[in-house]
Design brief:
CATH class of the largest domain in chain A: Alpha Beta
Strand content of chain B: under 5%
Oligomer: heterodimer
Radius of gyration of chain A: 18 Å
Order of helices and strands of chain A: EEEHEEEEHHHEHEHEEEHHH
CATH topology of chain B: MetI-like fold
CATH superfamily of chain B: MetI-like
CATH superfamily of the largest domain in chain A: P-loop containing nucleotide triphosphate hydrolases
Distance between the termini of chain B: 39 Å
Shape of chain B: globular
Shape of chain A: globular
CATH architecture of chain B: Orthogonal Bundle
Number of strands of chain B: 0
Distance between the termini of chain A: 32 Å
Number of domains of chain B: 1
Structural class of chain B: mainly alpha
Largest sheet of chain B: none
Number of helices of chain B: 11
Chain lengths: ~240, ~220
């Protein structure tokens, strides 16, 4: 599976104009400052917004094509989307949330056990911690067997240690799932820790100096050392 | 005391509440989430009963629902019975009259729902209608309950509209508010007082419940 994205979208402050490709089993991280247009891009992929121009395909299935007037509704794209601040359905238990779109109860139970929230399946979202809610959001996204997984700053509201644990979970999942995963963050160290491909976004466009640089070519030390950071034009990202 | 008018009032209010909850929920959803040409005109039309004097409202309903009216003549052709001066007639009149009281709290409740919950439902494969039923309605229980209470209480207290459309036929259209008016007209203050006290108690109890709901 692979996700091919080429979109343009006019915004009131700037135009979003990006194109990138994410292979199955790969984590592509959109990194950039707040308000750079990262969430707009991910919403375009999800079909929650319509591109003014461009084409989005998942394998041989066209999700959006402005030339052909195709805009497949979000519900038909069968993707997983983990939102920034865990909007689980407040009237449902964690178990009901996780199985919201899945008829495979055994798979949901397996996922909940895998993410350590099975014992909380009868709790409502307001009775558990932020980390547990976000684990449930990941289970919910994975339970329907998505063709692509979109994660929009999924762990930004969590404490450092929980964030690290969940990040490791995501990295572990990518090989098992074999689907394209697009991860949005403003945190460059998080991007470095998780990415196979980093796509820096600045004012709606890709900062070409960084595009598709393999992870092993970008070391965290480079970020921490100002000289290296300058070399890689990190100031643009921060 | 004559309990029949009170029974009729309760039956009328209950029927109106059920009908309006079913009718107003999708309308409120449409007004809360859709953008279309003429939306503000439609919304103003739905809210018109709140601004119109009940007798004016009643007059127009009488014309529409009467034997010469668009709705009334169709009804009469179909059933052979008139719509006005019947219990069904006052149910329809009361429902139209109470529509804004059902619409407004529901629309406000629907608008308060986090937009991302709806988006999350779409991502998880739901159609807009399914998302409305499975996400919006269960998370708007307080707003729906407020609508139900307002409609019930408003229907219990309706007078002018019902008198215009239904008159005062004992056991058919002579509801408590009309019975109280007639009791006062015939100087039977004791009967009017008893019925008024019961209506007052019911209305006050419902207002208390509504206050609790708005606080939670």
């Amino acid at each position: 599976m692979a996700l091919d994205v080429k979109v343009k979208k006019r915004r009131h402050d700037f135009d979003v104009d990006v194109s990138f490709f994410c292979k199955g089993g790969e984590i592509l991280v959109l990194v950039g400052p707040s308000g750079a247009g990262k969430t707009t891009i991910i919403r375009l992929i999800a079909g929650l917004e319509t591109p003014d121009e461009g084409r989005i395909t998942c394998d041989d299935e066209i999700w959006a094509d402005s030339d052909k007037g195709i805009h497949q509704p979000t519900r038909k794209r069968r993707l997983g989307y983990v939102f920034q601040d865990f909007p689980l359905f407040p009237h449902l238990t964690l178990g009901a949330n996780a199985s919201f779109s899945s008829k495979n109860g055994a798979e949901v139970d397996r996922l909940m056990k895998r993410f350590g929230i099975y014992h909380l399946r009868n709790h409502k979202p307001d009775q558990v911690s932020g980390g547990e809610r976000q684990r449930c959001a990941i289970c919910q996204a994975l339970a329907r067997g998505p063709r692509a997984l979109l994660l929009d700053e999924p762990f930004s509201a969590l404490d450092v240690s929980t964030r690290r644990l969940l990040r490791d979970d995501i990295v572990e999942l990518k090989g098992k799932l074999g689907i394209p995963m697009i991860y949005v963050t403003h945190d460059i160290s998080e991007a470095l820790a998780i990415a196979d491909v980093i796509v820096p976004i600045v004012s709606g466009r890709i900062d070409r100096s960084w595009i598709e640089r393999p992870r092993n070519e970008i070391h965290e030390e480079q970020v921490l050392h100002p000289k290296a950071a300058r070399k890689h034009r990190l100031s643009l990202v921060y | 005391m004559d309990w029949l008018p009170l029974y009729l009032s309760m039956k009328l209010a209950l029927l109106c509440t059920v009908i309006l909850l079913v009718v107003a929920a999708p309308l409120a959803g449409l007004l809360a989430y859709s953008r279309f040409r003429g939306k503000s005109f439609l919304e103003a039309l739905f809210n018109l009963p709140m601004a119109l004097p009940p007798t004016v409202m009643g007059f127009y309903l009488l014309i529409f629902m009467g034997p010469q009216g668009a709705v009334g003549s169709l009804w009469e052709q179909w059933t052979g019975t008139p719509l006005v001066f019947s219990f069904l007639g006052i149910v329809i009149a009361s429902a139209v009259y109470s529509l804004p009281f059902a619409l407004m709290p529901m629309k406000t409740a629907f608008q308060k729902i986090d937009r991302r919950l709806l988006e999350s439902a779409y991502v998880l494969g739901l159609t807009p209608v399914a998302a409305f039923l499975r996400v919006v309605l269960p998370n708007s229980v307080n707003g729906i309950a407020t609508s139900a209470i307002l409609v019930f209480v408003h229907s219990m207290g309706a007078f002018g509209v019902l008198l215009m459309v239904g008159g005062s036929i004992p056991g058919e259209t002579r509801v408590a508010s009309i019975a109280i008016y007639e009791a006062v007209q015939s100087m039977d203050y004791a009967e009017a007082g008893r019925m008024s006290l019961i209506l007052l108690t019911i209305s006050y109890a419902f207002m208390l419940v509504m206050n609790r709901l708005s606080r939670s």
